[in-house]
Design brief:
GNAT family N-acetyltransferase; Diverse_Substrate_AcTransf; 153 residues; alpha+beta; EC 2.3.-.-; Aminopeptidase; GNAT_dom
Length: 153
C-alpha cells in the first residue's frame, strides 16, 4: 500500500472532518464534534491552523492538524492537535510519516517544543509516541473551560 503526504487544501476539509469524527467515535465521544466544514474552511483560510493529509488511492486516510503556540519558557512551539489515521490504514507507517512532517516543520521553524495530548487508555498511541522518543508527562493536568463555562465565567 502506498500513500502520499501533502498539505491539505480547502476541498480536503470535508474528509478531514470525517476523520475528526472517526477519532471522536474512537475516543468514545461521538457527539462531541461541534465544528463544521464551513468553520474549518474559514479558519483554515485565515491560517488559524495547519493541516497535512495522507492520501492513498485518492482518498484521505490520515491527517495531522497543528498550530503555532508560544511558551513563556521556551518561545515558539507547535501544538499537534490531532494525528489521525483511519482504522483500516493503521500500522502501515502513515502516522509516523505524518509526525515526521510535523517534526521537520518544527526544525525548519526553530521551535523548541512540539506537544500534544494522548488519552491515558490509548495504549497503542502511547507506545507509538514513546517509541519516537517523546516524553509523556504524567504530572500535568489538562485544564479546559468549555463554551458554557466561558459564558458563565
Amino acid at each position: 500500500m502506498s500513500f502520499k503526504i501533502r498539505k491539505a487544501v480547502l476541498k480536503d476539509l470535508p474528509a478531514v472532518l470525517d476523520l475528526i469524527q472517526e477519532l471522536a467515535t474512537f475516543e468514545n465521544e461521538p457527539k462531541a464534534v461541534e465544528v463544521t466544514v464551513e468553520e474549518l474552511q474559514t479558519d483554515y483560510a485565515k491560517n488559524l491552523f495547519s493541516c497535512i493529509v495522507a492520501v492513498s488511492d485518492n482518498k484521505i486516510v490520515g491527517l495531522a492538524l497543528y498550530y503555532n503556540r508560544y511558551s513563556t519558557w521556551k518561545g515558539k512551539t507547535i501544538h499537534l492537535e490531532d494525528l489521525v489515521v483511519t482504522q483500516t490504514h493503521r500500522g502501515k507507517g502513515i502516522g509516523k510519516a505524518l509526525l515526521n512532517v510535523i517534526i521537520a516543520e518544527a526544525k525548519k521553524e526553530g521551535v523548541r517544543r512540539v506537544e500534544w495530548c494522548v488519552l491515558d487508555w490509548n495504549a497503542n498511541a502511547i507506545n507509538f509516541y514513546e517509541s519516537t522518543g517523546a516524553t509523556i508527562l504524567k504530572d500535568w493536568y489538562l485544564v479546559q473551560l468549555d463554551k458554557k463555562g466561558i459564558e458563565n465565567f
